[in-house]
Amino acid sequence: MTDRDKGLQLYTYFRSSAAYRVRIALNLKGLKPELHFVHLLRGGGEQLQPGYKAVNPQSLVPALVVEGHALAQSLAIIEYLEETHPEPPLLPKDALGRARVRRLAFMVACDIHPLNNLRVLRRLRGQYGLSEDALKEWQQHWITLGFTALEALVANAPETGRYCHGDTPTLADICLVPQMANARRIATDLSPFPTLVRIEQTALSHPAFDAAQPKVQPDAE
Amino acid sequence: MTDRDKGLQLYTYFRSSAAYRVRIALNLKGLKPELHFVHLLRGGGEQLQPGYKAVNPQSLVPALVVEGHALAQSLAIIEYLEETHPEPPLLPKDALGRARVRRLAFMVACDIHPLNNLRVLRRLRGQYGLSEDALKEWQQHWITLGFTALEALVANAPETGRYCHGDTPTLADICLVPQMANARRIATDLSPFPTLVRIEQTALSHPAFDAAQPKVQPDAE
């Protein structure tokens, strides 16, 4: 019986970086959910319609349905996958190492990504009249601020290896790589972040990251 | 030997809701760190000065120093405390329950709080000229949006008890209560969220939450 048969269902949008994180984690764990595509722009946003709201009242992707239970929030989903499918591990064994990996992950997931989310950009444009240039500057500001701290933490740290923490992918890389894709999409200057760029390139050569990329998703445009 | 002797040091600011979360968790675990106060407004912000940047290059509070290791990101710190001091538990035992609690916590920690952080309000005011009324409206918008989804998830859910999940405090309550304090400070209408208000009142009657409140901190103004 495959996981698809066991009722694992992922609600995803190719360009959502939170969905991208969960796609990477599922690939690393070797899980193959049934896919449902939620188009965040079409018809004013399919995530705002009653069908998807019944899955996730917060109207954000991704959601993962596990045996009839709808899980949401990408990091809560990934921690669940880690607890229920421990191999390969996405967190180190030692508590201090786990705290370091989660810290790096939350620096992206709490302090960069939410500020640049589609709904935030829509509000800045619609309610406060920010121009497209101002919106780009807004996004680049938070990315650069967050990446500067991230680069300082990973460059030359003894814990850093081929990936953010050691030589295998962790939750930190799962958050970093989609954020790098967002940064590239708006032409952010990444030259101050050579360690982050190196780790991104390493990760993208891993089949689990490569197959999770937005451009190769069935709903990619 | 007390925890203070073992070199547990908390960098905190009374009004920071991320620091408030960690204070609650430390109190629940019965840990008493040495306190260092980082004033976020004085002198342009003590968190931006080299002394604190050496502790946390991200210039955000809180940070927790454990035997010479500086941990940061409130949720990474609390997960560390949970792993190293399992009693009383701040997460349920079952994987689906843990996913529910983390989901509720991240709904606050990722999708409400970062949008209303001091540095974000400063940038909206300084760079884009938002008025004080517009800033208040901005904050209330994200709080109301997030609380609407939270209320929908906790009201009438069989998992909800005296607290967000069962009858004892979890990571979800630790995130909810400081966010409620922020909501009250800017006079957000909480009447649509009776379950959240009830849980807040339950939590504030618990000594660990009560003693963590901003107004009773040594650096309160």
Note the topology.
Two copies of one chain form a homodimer.
Chain A: E1 8-12, H1 17-29, E2 34-37, H2 50-55, E3 63-66, E4 69-72, H3 74-84, H4 95-109, H5 118-126, H6 132-154, H7 171-185, H8 194-204, H9 207-210
Parallel strand pairs in A: 1-2
Antiparallel strand pairs in A: 1-3, 3-4
Helix pairs in contact in A: 1-3, 1-7, 4-7, 7-8
Oligomer: homodimer
Mean pLDDT of chain A: 95
- Largest beta-sheet details of chain A: 4 strands, mixed
Return residue spans of chain A where pLDDT drops below 50 for at least 5 consecutive residues: none
What is the CA-atom radius of gyration of chain A, in angstroms?
17 Å
CATH topology of the largest domain in chain A: Glutathione S-transferase Yfyf (Class Pi), Chain A, domain 2
In DSSP terms (H or I, runs of 4 or more residues), the helix count of chain A works out at: 9
Second CATH tier, the architecture of the largest domain in chain A? Up-down Bundle
Q: In which range does the helix fraction of chain A lie?
A: 40-55%
Question: CATH class of the largest domain in chain A, please?
Answer: Mainly Alpha
Structural class call of chain A reads alpha+beta
The CA-CA distance between the termini of chain A, in Å, is 32 Å
Question: What is the ordering of alpha helices and beta strands of chain A?
Answer: EHEHEEHHHHHHH
Largest interface: A-B, 45 and 45 residues
Quantity of strands of chain A, as a count: 4
Global shape of chain A: globular
